[in-house]
Design a protein that fits this description.
This protein is of the alpha+beta class. It has one domain. The protein is built from four helices and twelve strands. Strands 1, 2, 3, 6, 10, 11 and 12 form a seven-stranded mixed β-sheet that branches. Strands 4, 5, 7, 8 and 9 form a five-stranded antiparallel β-sheet that branches. A hairpin with a 2-residue loop joins strand 7 and strand 8. Helix 1 packs across helix 3. It starts with a helix and ends with a strand.
């Protein structure tokens, strides 16, 4: 099967993005305690708070002929305009929040701040909730087809997906559990 010119461009853009990701300063975080790690693996809720799990998801586009790839770009979780923690490839950030209404977004970590930032997603947290936030991004399909004009018409997008435990809990089972502070 021959790869189209658009497919080659998209593959090139993704490769450049992945190479640039290797140059980014990793997120600062700490290993979770063995007790917290065991609770996360067992999917145990917290009684008085809601537990948020933030992890890297997928890079996907309609032109990616071989299917989606893992997002390996270090990312920060943002709540109320403030960075509350970050993750690197192979990690899940676990944070406990007081019950209430929050807005979460994620920012692509770059040397001088954030590159792409997702739109804020409202999340209502109750005591005992298990919230899973997955950082996905979509490369520009327009750039692969029409170059700079296509990129302007269809820019790459950062997406924060809120998934239910039945959808995402198994995705974090093999990830290293980290926390934002000790």
């Amino acid at each position: 099967m021959a790869i189209s010119k658009a497919g080659c461009r998209l593959t090139g853009l993704v490769c450049i993005g992945l190479l640039l990701a290797a140059c980014v300063k990793p997120a600062s975080n700490f290993d979770a305690s063995s007790e917290l790690t065991a609770a996360v693996r067992a999917h145990e809720p917290v009684t008085e708070k809601g537990r948020v799990h933030f992890f890297l998801g997928l890079v996907d586009s309609s032109l990616m002929i071989f299917g989606p790839m893992s997002n390996v770009q270090p990312a920060d979780l943002i709540s109320g305009g403030q960075v509350v923690g970050g993750v690197n490839k192979g990690q899940v950030l676990v944070l406990d929040f007081e019950p209430g209404d929050y807005e979460f977004a994620w920012g692509e970590r770059v040397e001088d701040g954030h590159g792409m930032v997702s739109s804020a997603v409202p999340v209502s947290i109750s005591a005992g909730d298990m919230i899973y936030l997955r950082a996905d991004w979509r490369p520009s399909t327009g750039a692969a087809i029409a170059g700079i004009v296509g990129a302007i018409a269809d820019p790459p997008r950062a997406l924060l997906l809120v998934c239910s435990p039945s959808e995402c809990a198994s995705e974090i089972d093999d990830l290293h559990v980290v926390v934002a502070s000790q």
